[in-house]
Amino acid sequence: MGTRIQPGPRERLLTAAQRLSYEQGVNVGVDALLSAANVARRSLYEHFGGKDGLIAEVLRRAAAEDLDRYRSAIAAAGDDPRQRLLAVFDMLDEIVTTPGFRGCRYLGADLALAEPAHPAHAVTQQYRQSLHDLLAHEVQRLRLPRPGHVTDQLMLLIEGTLATGAARPTSRPARDARELAQHILS
Questions:
Q1: Whether pTM exceeds 0.70
Q2: Assuming Cys at both sites, which of 61, 72, 93, 112 could form a disulfide with 174, CB separation 3.0 to 4.6 Å?
Q3: Is residue 8 part of a domain?
Q4: Which PROSITE patterns match (predicted)?
């Protein structure tokens, strides 16, 4: 009979914080995080230096997962850069129509954390830059005029899709954004 190894306190804190900070926002209480992770307060400080460090690490972890999701959607669309970029909006349509979708966790964190020096802001900024770079690579392959401007427009469509999907859950903003992206990429 095999023994089941439980995740350690660090992993339990990350898992609980990733879920709760998305469901309730990054201002979720420390006691709720500790209770959900079934860890002592000391573990939070030992592993993350406090809640700010935990939230930054959660965002870093989520960003890596989300960027992998974008990369996978792009790669699955074949070799045509236009179709690869449009596949992003097909993926977003699945995301924003999933029950429990609550919007973009990075925008939510930026809006909720008023302190400009909060370490989460550097993570959200890096996430957006990485996504921008991923899109820019495909836009460059299209050899469109003003590729930087086109990439910025695609980012706006993505962020708008995520915000609208949260604010109006019965709408299908990714479909509209995909149509707009087709015009931008023409």
A1: yes
A2: 93
A3: no
A4: HTH_TETR_2 (PS50977)
